[in-house]
Write a structure and sequence with these properties.
The chain has a 5-stranded parallel beta sheet with strand order 3-2-1-4-5, sandwiched between helices. It has 4 helices and 5 strands. By secondary structure, it is of the alpha/beta class. Helix 1 crosses helix 2. The relative contact order is 0.20. The chain has one domain: Rossmann fold.
Length: 140
């Protein structure tokens, strides 16, 4: 338990993304809530596996920390919140780790590349997810 529950959750999230077909050549991977336990460990794991990681955080003063973990880009959490409830947007992410939920998960689902996947594990952003598009889910 050196890595704790957060590390175990981050590891399982990355494993599930790869089980669903994520590879390093497919494009950037988003990690929401990147300064939290699950998020920061997910950034670290993904970077060490060769992925280009974009870290999303509400703590602008932690951008340097996320860069030291290897995040290629750091963006504000408001950039990944779906406040307009748009079901489809431009495709942006090959995969995502989301320990936030709510409007963040809505945004991720609407910007996920075709055949992309998201590993979601938290509800700090709320429990409501508004989805108006048809999605194909694969895996167990």
């Amino acid at each position: 338990m050196i890595i704790g529950t957060a590390g175990f959750t981050a590891g399982l999230s990355v494993q599930r993304l790869e089980d669903n077909g994520l590879t390093v050549d497919q494009g950037p991977v988003l990690v929401a809530g990147a300064t939290g336990g699950v998020g920061s460990l997910a950034v670290n794991i993904l970077v060490k596996r060769g992925y280009d990681v974009t870290a999303s955080t509400g703590k602008a003063n932690e951008a340097d920390y996320l860069k030291t973990l290897g995040a290629k880009d750091v963006i504000d959490r408001h950039e990944v919140e779906d406040t307009e409830q748009k079901p489809v947007r431009g495709k942006r992410w090959a995969g995502a780790v989301d320990p936030v939920g709510g409007q963040t998960l809505q945004y991720i689902l609407s910007t996920l590349n075709y055949d992309g996947s998201v590993a979601t594990s938290g509800l700090t952003g709320g429990t409501e997810v508004y989805i108006r598009a048809s999605f194909h889910f694969k895996g167990n």
